[in-house]
Amino acid sequence: MPVRQLSEATVNRIAAGEVVERPASVVKELTENALDAGATKIEILTDGGGRRLIRVTDDGDGMTGADLTLAVDRHATSKLNDDDLLDIRTLGFRGEALPSIGSVAHLSITTRHNSEPHAWSIAVDGGEKSELKPAALGAGTRVEVRDLFYATPARLKFLKSDRTEGENIRETIRRLAMSRPDVAFTLAGEERAPITWAAALPGAPGRLARLADILGHEFRANAVEVRGERNGIAVEGFAALPTHTRANALGQYLFVNGRPVRDKLLIGVVRGAYADYLPRDRHPIVALFVTLDPREVDVNVHPAKAEVRFRDPALVRAVLITSLQQALVREGQRAATSGGSATIAAFRPATTTRPGWDWRRSPAYPPLSTHGNAALGFAEAAQAAFDVGGPSADARVAVAEATADLIDNPLGAARAQVHETYIVAQTRDGIVIVDQHAAHERIVYERMKAALEKAGVARQILLIPEIVELDEAAVERVLARADELSRYGLAIEPFGPGAVAVRETPSMLGHIDARALIRDLSEHIAEWDEALPLERRLMHVASTMACHGSVRAGRRLKPEEMNALLREMEATPNSGQCNHGRPTYVELKLSDIESLFGRR
Fold first, then answer.
1. What is the pLDDT of residues 173-221, one digit of tens each?
2. Domain 8-197 sits in which CATH superfamily?
3. What's the pLDDT tens digit per position in 351-376?
4. Selecting from 3.30.1780.10, 3.20.20.140, 3.30.230.10, 2.160.10.10, what CATH number does the domain 204-330 have?
5. pTM of the model
6. CB neighbours (10 Å) of residue 74?
7. Separation of alpha carbons 68 and 474, rounded Å
8. Which residues of 218-230 are buried (b: 16+ CB within 10 A; e: fewer)?
9. Do the beta carbons of residue 106 and residue 150 sit within 8 Å?
10. What is the C-alpha radius of gyration for the chain, rounded to an integer number of angstroms?
């Protein structure tokens, strides 16, 4: 077959296939053009999931008649001062965006520049450009796209339902709204009620307000500010506390020079920064904004500019993870506010009141004279939890005078121990319930990390070595990691074909069940990837040891021991959550408690 030159219409449709993947791609291109034009208010209207109508209206600078005529020609742009493709300081520069859209849809543009006495309008239908006409428009630009892909019917077969395409458009606008909190966005369409995000104040407070509008107010209550800079790379944004997570990674957003991108680098960085806090099946919520010299990042590696490539990815990764870790350590004593809300919800009446229903005659609530609590709204399991019998610890009036000055501490003064597992402390404006095992587990873990950084973990030699029997494969796995285990004070050696001998254990753990510890370590080691860095493997070891060396549930504590644990929590980094990502304490404000009893 001989070589031939493709027609202009075919070339435009090929370009459209790269840029216009679905209706959300059109919305992204048009909205980014509005942002580059200096718009402070952008309205997006869609119909039929964007395939019947997409209308984007902005109050930006607009275009003159001459500029509008060129704007719908291929490879024409106002976003490059010269031909330097490495110095991209706008969200878009691709000249074929508008002509590509016009080659597969009915495109009309109405715009007015401040220097013009009136607006101008032009249309492109299936690649055919109309004459420039005068039009009426106050200021800015209005772009309408109708019957998307009518010129390429095959592409319509690959579109999803109107609801799905509408949700993709919504997600696109959400990301752009996150990147520009100073701009007001309105998204409307027959598939949804209108959504408006008002312009926010400049700076971190305004950015957090916009993120709260999009990600929810729970994110705002549990967000930690992230800020860092090194070698011209600046990182700003917010990250949720480790106790406020999701079951997937869809709540992780990365922006590079104001451009929303999907980058695998972010997922790895976030996972590494939260490695000490989260279980494997939970993912944090973060919104990070990276600013650097445009010449240090290539934004043209993806046709839709959804991915970027950094010139020095290792440096960007280091700045991101350091900034995240510092922010988490700074707010490490905080626990998610959702814990208190969930606790309050657990106390709510589980059954609805029916006319003529008397709780005193209900079989679920025995007479008050019988043993047990019969409080309205408590399920039987909840009642059993409060049937504690005698006090677990001596935290009576005699102790109150000695601990009265402790109430002003963040975690207050210990008042009682419930079920020999939970410490109840009183603060100035509420109560705190602490899981003693989870709290001490984090304390021991942080001690081991600090000891390893300084001079290593102190060991204690067992008078009689502990022999632990395992299957041969498990023995080989554990012995292969003997050097790594020894760094944490755990000395083991082979003892026959199916056993290992434990000769030394970390002294800070005191008396521990060596058999259970070795078995747990062998199970964790079986899941390790050989590519996992040594530091991460050591952290896994430390976490497992801390779990076995901490105060166990079921151990009765004295009042001074409980208060000592509270004070250690206040002085320990990351004490708001245990090594597995669970909260170590739940705080109930006095106002929340009063609302339970109808006082508010």
1. 999 999 999 999 999 987 678 899 999 988 899 999 999 999 988 899 8
2. Histidine kinase-like ATPase, C-terminal domain (3.30.565.10)
3. 444 444 444 444 444 443 334 443 43
4. 3.30.230.10
5. 0.69
6. 16
7. 71
8. bbbebbbbbebee
9. yes
10. 31
